[in-house]
Design brief:
- 72% of the residues lie in helices and 0% in strands.
- It has eleven helices and no strands.
- It has helices at 2-10, 12-53, 58-67, 94-98, 113-132, 136-158, 163-178, 185-210, 217-230, 235-256, 268-293.
- Helix 2 crosses helix 6 (136-158).
């Protein structure tokens, strides 16, 4: 790893363009995850329900079709006309621009969200490496950044934070810090436990007082994962930042979009944004909160 970092430092003119191109490809893959993973979860739930009910006939056929649906299958295609997207039509960002945002087969508009996610992935990757410095630790930390992007968009779309992302992310953070990553293993372990229990306690208290569920279990697991990566000392800043931004956005949505108090607002994106800010400027944010609270 040290030899690789040395080679990178000696050729920055090659590293930064390579990072941008690689991150764009990761963003393209994240688009697949964001689109398909919730559908795969729904199919898995449907299969479990059918198995409990011992359904047959058409339900069995649906189960067979569901087994063939994954991140890899079926291949990328236009949902309107079924046109198979070729490799040249699947180049991150550039293909969307070349096609002018339309399907080559039927001319149906392609959502601008796809190239936007690719671009955001590249920008956040470059920002992370620039702010943290080129090192093996930083390159591994990019995995956390990419996972947070996927979780943010999935939560905005479906109000779900899939266990298939949050739980591996938690274990990866503990393993990473066991090998001397961003913090020591003790801080990472306490961060994971305290991260989960802090929001779990708020959830239980809110349900006890109001009789309603204020957030989902995915939020507990996401904060636990952030604690595992960043350590327990970052949890106060993450919770305060995410709560402040979430409350502000919620009030603005109620005022300008006439949303009622009972309309659920996903909390995962605010946790992810706060975690990213603490990854970039953790010590500075800690000092700010300590001064603000007079500690």
């Amino acid at each position: 790893m040290e030899q690789l970092i040395t080679a990178i430092l000696e050729t920055p003119w090659l590293f930064w363009p390579a990072l941008v191109l690689f991150s764009l490809c990761i963003g393209s893959f994240l688009n697949v995850v964001i689109l398909r993973l919730p559908r795969m979860m729904e199919q898995a739930w449907r299969q479990e329900c059918e198995a409990l009910l011992d359904c047959g006939g058409e339900a069995a056929t649906d189960r067979e079709q569901a087994r063939s649906y994954s991140l890899a299958q079926p291949g990328s295609h236009c949902p309107e006309c079924g046109h198979t997207i070729s490799a040249l039509e699947n180049i991150p960002l550039l293909s969307w621009l070349a096609l002018r945002g339309r399907c080559r087969g039927c001319g149906t508009p392609i959502s601008v969200r796809y190239p936007l996610i690719e671009l955001v992935t590249a920008l956040l990757s470059v920002a992370t490496v620039y702010l943290l410095g080129i090192s093996g630790t930083t390159l591994i930390t990019l995995g956390l950044v990419w996972a947070l992007i996927a979780l943010t968009v999935i939560d905005l779309d479906t109000q779900l934070l899939p266990d298939s992302i949050t739980l591996p992310l938690l274990w990866a953070g503990l393993l990473f810090n066991y090998m001397g990553g961003l913090t020591d293993l003790e801080s990472a372990f306490i961060g994971a436990v305290a991260g989960y229990l802090s929001l779990w306690s708020v959830y239980q208290l809110f349900r006890l007082v109001t009789g309603k569920e204020g957030m989902g279990f995915g939020d507990f697991k996401l904060l636990a994962a952030l604690g595992a990566w960043l350590g327990w000392t970052m949890l106060p800043a993450i919770i305060l930042l995410s709560s402040l931004v979430g409350a502000t956005v919620g009030i603005l949505m109620m005022v300008f979009r006439n949303l009622g108090r009972d309309v659920p607002i996903p909390f995962g994106p605010y946790l992810a944004a706060a975690g990213l800010l603490c990854l970039w400027w953790g010590p500075e944010l800690q000092q700010f909160w300590y001064r603000f609270l007079g500690v």
